[in-house]
Amino acid sequence: MSEKKLSANEGIKTRSIYLRGTIAEGLADLSTGSLSEDDQQLIKFHGSYQQDDRDLRADRRKHRLERAFSFMVRIRIPGGVVTPEQWIACDQIAGHYANGTIKLTTRQAFQLHGIIKSNLKRSLAGINKAALTTIAACGDVNRNVMCNPNPFLSSVHAEVLATSQAISDHLNPKTGAYHEIWLDGEKVESSEEVVEPIYGKTYLPRKFKIAVAVPPSNDIDLYANDLGFIAIVEEGKVIGYNVAVGGGMGMTHGNEATFPRIADVIGFCTPEEVVNVAEKIVLVQRDFGDRCDRKHSRFKHTIEDRGVDWVIQTINEYLGYPLQPARPFVFEDNGDRFGWVEDERGHFHYTLFVEGGRVLDTRDYPLRTGLREIAKIHDGDFRLTGNQNLIIANVSPEKRPEVEALMKQYGIAGCHEQSGLRLSSIACVALPTCGLALAESERFLPEVLNALEERIERIGLRHDAITIRMTGCPNGCGRPFISEIGLVGRGPERYNLYLGGGHAGDRMNKLFRQDVGAQEIPDVLTPILEHYARERQEGEHFGDFVIRAGYVAASTNGPGFHRDIKAEALQPVAV
Amino acid sequence: MLPEHSPFAPAQRRSLEELLAGFSPAQRFWLAGYLSAAPLTGGAEPAGAPAAAGPKLTILYGSESGNSEKLADLSAKEAKKLGFKATTRNMSDATPADLAKIENLLVIISTWGEGDPPEAATTFHKALLSEEHDLSKLRYSVCALGDTSYTRFCQTGKEVDARLETLKATRLTPRQDCDVDYEDAHRAWLDEALKAFGPVATAAPVNGNGNSVFSFAAAPTQPVWDKKNPFASEMLERVLLNGRGTAKETWHYELSLENAGLTYEPGDALGVIPANPSDVVESLLKAAKLSGSESVEVSGTSKPVAEALREDLDITALSRPVLTKLFAFSGSAQLSDLLKEGNEKQLNDYLWGRWIVDALEDFAPKGIAAADLVSILRKIPPRLYSIASSPLAHPDEVHLTIAAVRYHANGRDRKGIASTYLADHVPQGEPVSVYIHENKNFRLPASGDTPIIMVGPGTGIAPFRSFVEHRSALGHEGKSWLFFGDQRYTYDFLYQLEWQEHLASGALSRLDVAFSRDQPEKIYVQDKMRERSRDLYTWLEEGAHLYVCGDASRMAHDVHQTLIDIVVKEGGKSKEAAELYVEDLRKTKRYQRDVY
Fold first, then answer.
1. A34 CA: distance to closest CA in chain B (Å)
2. Which chain B positions have a beta carbon within 8 Å of A54's beta carbon?
3. pTM over the 0.90 mark
């Protein structure tokens, strides 16, 4: 049996001396706005992607310029909670060095786009100065740990947030490379074992995502994560966590060996055990994950290849004891609740809708300025939701009138007076900066929603929350495969339309039509929405209806995503 | 083979022809270079030429772009013809004390920017104005070069002229102030001054036509195409160098020199003779209340006024002389007031950001006759642009890097006439009138091994593209270091792909860039120089030549100051010693500037 060849990234990691590579030298060379190819891989571990403005690609050479390279910086915020001071700091960095906007991501992180190489170091230094970090925001490591931003029960939120932060801290890379390169830290020589006790010098085979949910809300889309913890709350206390493994969105068009998968709930652990359980599960993936084929190297593939029973047994072996049986729980939905709520201590939380997660100023809606002004007087915190929205949290009763006045002044007060469809939408960044995008997403979804809103108004579905998610490619940043309506870019102006995802993010959707033209999307969806409005049963969600009505078959897990696709799904669309 | 009007006797001509016929092209080429470079002292004077036994005459010049230097050379030749023992002297190599030792002096000096002397003349100028000398034996005359569109027109010449008088020298003929079209004015001044300096030892021999046989126009080094007789060069290619998203508009032009017989060296400039844009012509006609078809006489030919305004005259640059002439026709009380002594500030405020059309609208509301309009306008001045190409890398081509100047002031969109002429009115395939303007003060080191440091933000990058291409084409291996800067990295990194190739090939050894608007604080080339002070000083100590090209008003000054600071810091010298160090670099031609 011949050994399969390791993927190129494994060599890059091995050679990098714990993520150093030649990043420092590359930053100093300003003849180009780019880094070397190897360093482009390594810099992900530091929280940044090299990108270029794809809108400009065609004419850069004719100006005798290289591509318009810049860097996306992802700020890792475990649980998505930042202080007002941290908000102001990020806002300032966005204004000084990035493109003047902040993207709230689907994983409760900030993304700043358009930072040129010469400004990268000072941006990262500024982020760290605000007691935030970018390390491991990307790369083959544990990423930002998500956590339900639960504004209803502040004591439970405090507990799960602390858990998320503990997991995050424990699984952070320990290499000194980050400090050396970005914060002028001293070079520390140490023996290899000490450098990365969990990861070793090749880190993980692929990215690893962890989330913590508090039922009945699944707003962090637990099932899309490699590892999920579901808080089991009794009498206002977290008594432990159900453990879910093997979720993940990314796939490749035309390659059925790749598929999205939703996580399996495999057991239960106590709050005291949770960090150790997370570590051992990461170690299982470190040791058994595929390091040869990066399209087959997520934890979901390890589990799909070896079976759920195998993974439970192996985790138990690594733990040295068996996980307890999972406890019952119910998820109702994966959306956000907008507007004001009061928690049990009498503090107020306002969830505001941020379309596409993009915080920016336009002439009609100076959202970025408004939030900055609020941050200046706010005595609580800000929380990012997993749906690209924002909570102005922990507002004291005394401050609430001031916050409300500013919200009114900057037009934020009515921001969630939108259709249920729009409020339940997610769009990834895609063009022009994302190198993976095959089609538009953030810039285009609002247009689709405009067209659909006219129709749902007429049909009478204005207030129905139907999850609709668009991504520019099938890698799944916007978690399109667990939405009730999923639109995934396949090429310029062409999308695959998926239907039938679970309203709580608990079932994958199914391909309904391949290669729908961008302008045809509303026309293809409208008759189905009309049908739903006419014939839905009491409380029936759109994702369930389309299965009952026979538009698509329900997806079974993993490879089942590609089965039972109707023949007409692959036919050209006739509108 | 040799023309009859060549300065040789028939017998000399025949022997020369015989000799030359036996030479290979390479031998002829070598000889041409040798003769043009080697001082011809010790050789026999041409037959019939006067022995240089007449009065000694020193021609002192201060030159920035090379015009004064060229006129000094021309003046010396003319003076020699009249029997003067004439020598030229660069102010950079002279001190005011030297003047006490001489008797006859011609000064040719230009004025730059806001009334500043040429860089190379700064030290001399400062010393002359501050030191006391007895120059009572000195007789002199000053020719000042300048541009009437600047307020302090010919300021340096005026200062030198006045100061020499104060130091008791005798002004033999009045100072001549020359505008950008200086040739005729200089010639008139020279004739008068030389006459005054007489007596002439021997009359120069004349040929049958009564012209001096050494007529400068017949000298073999004179290019065929010049300012008066420009070459119609085809626009081969135009490239906008700024990417989409920029606030700048910098163009790269490639012009053809095919069949022109024009040669240039890195460091030279290209003179471009622009035409005025039709919208500006039309607005002027409208203000003058003219149809455009009125016939006027310009340089001896009659043509419709619209055509004269488009092709021959400077119709934008507003100055005191223009306003003074306009007053003669309009008699506006308001204008009279503005021109009064004591109202200089109001006048300057008025001149800033205004064109001639504004003055017509403001002070000649009833319009002006076509002939009168033409009489107040000067000839359209050519513009000089540093050449951006090496003739070795691009045979038969000459490249330029030019920022199109556009702005809004006093209620009107304004533009740089020449820069937008090329940007807006010369599409690919169309001709442009050009000539080569030599700049001996901006030259690569004689040795290809000498390291060079180039500081060229913005369009100041132009000559360095030429330098690096040239050294690369010659296979020279001296180190090279470029400092470039502009507004934004992503959009304004002029010729980025070319620099990357030069770095990869080794033609360029180091590159540092400074972009002022990529971050809250401004970062300029001098900041990068400061950051690299140790290496920069080491290069200088290794004999590197330092070149600065670009903006004269701020950048060149800041870079100069930074250079002194670097020598203080890295050389452990006092401020005075560092200034001397830099001054010595300049004197030894290791620090050269081409600023505008």
1. 11
2. none
3. no
